[in-house]
Amino acid sequence: MDKPTHEIEYESMLLGRHSHMTAPRTRRDGGHLDRSAYILLSRVRIEGPMSIRQLSEAFGLDPSTLNRQTSAMLRAGLVERIPDPDGGIARKFRITPEGERRLDQERSETVLGLEKVLTDWTPEEVATFAACLKRFNTDIERLTGRPWPRPADPS
């Protein structure tokens, strides 16, 4: 590979392939969350209730795509539709206690998987890797104009 960016491209592709190593396995309590539900629930948890329009702007996705995804989440009891708490016309999606529970469970299992992968890394290597991933993501967000809110303490 002639440039480091070529290696980053290739390793990013492999990272997607290896996601099953850290992703939770199917469980008896309804299975694991699919990727879109995991990401949508994470965003709604941080931002609070969001409308389809707000989700569309945040993700850069067509409202019809989000309608399908949120409909599946409604059926699974992960989110509920509520009147806009700020008095707006559009109804918003709020994460339910079941959605909170499933998101927490999924996140905990993912972190455990990552800890297995990183078991031989020093704390400094893990911190450096986390900082580089954060910078990579925030630079993408800056270029796309779609910043992602981050909790003060990601744990």
Automatic annotation (TrEMBL):
The HTH marR-type domain, residue ranges: 1-138
InterPro entries assigned to the protein according to its UniProt record, in alphabetical order: ArsR-like_HTH (IPR011991), HTH_MarR-typ (IPR000835), WH-like_DNA-bd_sf (IPR036388), WH_DNA-bd_sf (IPR036390)
Family matches, as Pfam families: MarR
Protein name: MarR family winged helix-turn-helix transcriptional regulator
Span of the signal peptide: none
Transmembrane regions: none
